[in-house]
Amino acid sequence: MSPNENAGPLAGVRVLSNEVQLAGPYCSMTLADRGAEVIKIERPKYGDSAREGAPIIKNDDGERVSGYFMRFNRNKRSLTLNLKDPKGQEIYRELAAKSDVVIDNLRPGVMEKLGFGYDALCTINPGIIYVSISGFGTMPDLQGPYAGRPAYDIVAQAMGGLMYTCGQEGGPPTWLGIALGDLYSAALAVQGIMFALYERTKTGKGQYIDVSMYDAMISLAERSLTAYSLTGHVLKRGIEPFIAPWGPFQTKDGWIALIVPTERDWARLCEAMERPDLIGMEGETDSGPARARNMQGGFLQPVVEDWIAARTTDEVVEELLAQGLAVGPVQNAKDVFECEHASARNAFIDIEDPVAGEVTLVGPPIKMSGQETVITHPAPRLGEDNEAILQDVLGYEAQQIQELIESGVL
Predict the structure, then answer these.
(1) How many domains does the chain have?
(2) Could you give the residue numbers annotated as active site?
């Protein structure tokens, strides 16, 4: 029985996930958090390479578990299966025939070479929804010159336009500090799966979903790309031509984040700074572009920066919130972990891991009134569900399973 049986809106949906590291695992975990039965296909003996990722946590018995692996693999079942063995291939096809979704974020072409591409699987199961997450896309009629290139998150962020606009003026392009290329691509894959599951209720047919990390980063860089499309202007690091004040500002004891997008908000900031004379100065402060020109080494920069620097973070936040402005402190991981609001929002969940004991992890960000209880099964040990999956899903007998173990198929 699946650990998520009868729990959540996706209960009854079976997912085969051929996944490694991050994008595929994050996609399938999101589905598992909502009740889908996710069968994680792993290499016998080795498993997902993420199982070796730091930090490594050891218990008193010397058992080890990867904190990196924990982040993206809760609520799943692990099946070790040698997909190069004919019997392993047979088992995979049997599982595909009884599944709703296949996730593939292996190197492009690997699943096709094994005989498990979409064209092959949809002949077995016309309702199968096949999701490919890759660097540059895999749909045959949308092949660009980069199709065969390998890609990691930082490459997607760089090529998609995000890194060029992040960082300080005169400094190097800056990686955003999170694996956005992986995580956002995974989120888009989940969205595509939901679209396809809904359409299948009307047509009875599955489909192929192609998510490219490059495409995903281009979609997130839409502001700079639209600015270029409409004006021919290339946005640069640390130079904001359209809205001001906008950015992180240093306080007496930390940093705050502030954006002033409208004239009404600019008037509110001026009131807080006790500088009503700066409101509505024609060509100087009466528009976002005008203020932006005067914030880049102009007369507005010291006015705003000095007022903020003379106060603590709490003082700035309190005074600006009182004016109705959107403002907040720049928080580190400890701050967020201890935040009362994050706690009230159930941003974190506690999971009892068989090796590490109770661990606290980031929980599902979407809250649903129909699923008040969050599923909190730990990330599976390598191959721990082999016997249960083959028995529950395919009806294999114990002797058959033992023979598969002895022959190295499992």
Answers:
(1) 2
(2) 182
